[in-house]
Amino acid sequence: MVEISGKPDTLRIACAEGKIKLRKETIKRIREGKIEKGDPLTIAQLAGIMAAKKTPEIVPLCHPISIAGVKIEFQISNEEIIVKSEVKAVAKTGVEMEALTATLVALLTIWDVVKAYEKDEAGQYPDTKITEIKVVSKIKREIEEEK
């Protein structure tokens, strides 16, 4: 693990995003609230937030930090859902891994909630895929001290 004790606490904000391609029929079911397991976006939002907080338990050399906030948003088109995650903390190290983890777990959760509608006759997922997971932005800002 990298030594960070000498670094000052700074405001850290990271945004990540990724996509899940789904069948048009599945997207229609999501929009109409006809997914048997429940609303995939609400469930994915909670899963993403929980995942951001658990990142150091999943990624071996990731520093545990106190997260100040996690925001998960979705953009839905006819064939895909884009997940955007923003993580904020006042810490000695960045929150990119937390944002990436939140995004990926939200995407995996969507897949899990809708998988019954994505399978073909052989039980496979020929149309479903998660792509383009990336850090969109990273901000590091010194904290102004109150006088």
Concise synopsis of the structure shown:
This protein is α+β, with helices and mostly antiparallel strands.
Mind explaining what this structure looks like?
With 147 residues, the chain is α+β, with helices and mostly antiparallel strands. The protein has a single domain, classed as Molybdopterin cofactor biosynthesis C (MoaC) domain (Alpha-Beta Plaits, 2-Layer Sandwich). 35% of the residues lie in helices and 33% in strands. The protein has a four-stranded antiparallel β-sheet with strand order 2-3-1-4, covered by helices on one side. Helix 2 (40-58) packs across helix 3 (96-118). The radius of gyration is 17 Å and the shape is elongated. The chain starts with 9 loop residues before the first strand and ends in a 5-residue tail after the last strand. The relative contact order is 0.30. The model has no long low-confidence stretch (mean pLDDT 95).
Which key terms come to mind for this protein?
147 residues; Alpha-Beta Plaits; four-stranded antiparallel beta sheet; 3 helices; 4 strands
Average pLDDT metric: 95
Q: Numbering strands along the chain, what is their spatial order in the largest sheet? A: 2-3-1-4
Number of helices: 3
CATH architecture: 2-Layer Sandwich
CATH topology grouping? Alpha-Beta Plaits
- Count the beta strands: 4
CATH superfamily: Molybdopterin cofactor biosynthesis C (MoaC) domain
User: In percent, how helical is the residue content?
Assistant: 25-40%
**Cα-based radius of gyration, to the nearest Å:** 17 Å
- Uncertain parts: none
- Note the gap between the termini: 35 Å
Structural category is alpha+beta
What would the principal axes of the Cα set say about the shape? elongated
Characterize the quaternary organization of these chains: single chain
User: What count of domains describes the coordinates?
Assistant: 1
What percentage of the residues does DSSP assign to strands (E)? 25-35%
Major sheet description: 4 strands, antiparallel
Order of helices and strands: EHHEEHE
Q: Which CATH class?
A: Alpha Beta
